[in-house]
Amino acid sequence: MFGIILISACTLMHIYVCWRAARVPFLNRHVSGPLFLAVAAALWAVLVLGRFYGHHNTGPWAWAVELVGMIWIGVLLLNTVSFLLVDLVTGFGFLFPRWVPSLRGCALVAGMALSATALVQGFRAPVVEQYEVRLKGLPDALDGSVVVGVSDLHVGSLLGPDWLADRIAQIQAEKPDLVVLLGDLFEGHGAGGYDDLLPVLQGLSAPLGVWAVPGNHEAYGGFASLGLLRDAGVKLLRNRWTQVRPGLILAGVDDLTANRRSGGGDLVEEALASRPPGATVFLSHTPWEAEKAADLGVGLMLSGHTHGGQIWPFNYLVRRAYPLLAGQYEVNGMAVIVCRGTGTWGPRMRLWRAGEILRVTLRIK
Predict the structure, then answer these.
(1) Distance between CA atoms of 176 and 362, rounded to whole angstroms?
(2) pLDDT per residue over 15-67, tens digit each?
């Protein structure tokens, strides 16, 4: 159902962008009508095949058609915004009629320039963002401990073992004391399994352990991929806490969006109940219920899920559902850091910022 809704929305954008592009003077002069229609039809076919064939099959052809189809979705979004802005300014062509063709040409150039920028950002390696957080109750011996976190890698049909190996090399280069995986590590549905990822994941290590919480994409796959994490030596925090060292508690919950859809219970309360005194770091894929976590004495909450909106101006819509969109916040005295995503979902595109890996240094408060 999600795929049908996605393709339907993208088809409307495709029609709109092609309709407006067909009236750009440069294209009118240099591209014949039949050729324009043929290219438009081919791109729409790739869009559909990418979602319904490429996403659910393996092999180089499936990978290529999904990659191109997903990128075209991003191009459509940015060109739709550009053309729509011109239409709003010109009253959909009724105002300033002499300038409308030229303005639409400028919109097409702007849309394609934004798309190129987003592609460069999307294919860049994620950057390491540095944070420092002071925690009440943190033992002196753990002052300066480094937590490295990643979220939303979406390893699957488009981002494979080689890409994951590079990310693990980045994580290990930070010499973490603790590694946390904040959900949506795997695409969770689509083509095939993840057996070839096991030796790659086994490269993750840290003195205080490697810990993970599931995201909504793990839930889509019935949590089957969590067995792979266990086999790789990753410890799961599913609605529970653990004391990684005396005075440092790590707690985590299953994805709160999936829990809300299923009508589940109070996972935050469950995960934090009856824990010993000390500093608490709380892992939740979705950055919801921060106020509750703060009221329960959490010092630091780490989340992901939002991708920071991934492609501007989509971030304005995402912020309506997730006010804690990306970066560091303070909620009732608790620090919240939301990772804008280490990988990408859908298009290998980002605008305006590359993906990120969190490096959080814990300090005594």
Answers:
(1) 11
(2) 999 999 998 999 988 899 999 999 999 999 999 999 888 888 888 898 999 99
Same domain, 118 and 164: no
DSSP states of 185-251: -B--SSS---GGGHHHHTT---TT-EEE---HHHHHTTTTTHHHHHHTTPEE-SSEEEEEETTEEEE
If asked whether residues 237 and 347 sit together in one domain, one would say yes
311 and 190 in a single domain? The answer is: yes
Helix H or strand E segment including 57: none
CATH at residue 285 = 3.60.21.10
State the pLDDT at residue 191.
42
Number of folded domains in the chain? 2
- In terms of residue numbers, what domain contains 144? 127-364
Q: Is residue 113 located within the same domain as residue 158?
A: no
Q: Which helix (H) or strand (E) holds 91?
A: none
Token pair in block for residue 307: 């991708």
Do 142 and 248 lie in a common domain? yes
147, 176 contact by CB (below 8 A):
yes
The pLDDT score that the predictor gives to residue 189 is 57
Contacts 24+ apart (CB under 8 A), 241-246: 241/271, 241/272, 241/275, 241/280, 242/211, 243/275, 243/276, 243/278, 244/178, 244/208, 244/209, 244/211, 245/139, 245/141, 245/142, 245/208, 246/139, 246/278
In sequence order, the 6+-apart residues with CB closer than 8 A to the CB of 77 are 13, 311, 314
| CA 96 and chain centroid, separation | 41
pTM: 0.93
Asked if 359 and 211 sit in the same domain, the reply is yes
DSSP 3-state of 252: strand
Judged on CB neighbours under 10 Å (0-12, 13-18, 19+), 33 is: exposed
Tell me which of 123, 155, 175 is where a domain ends.
123
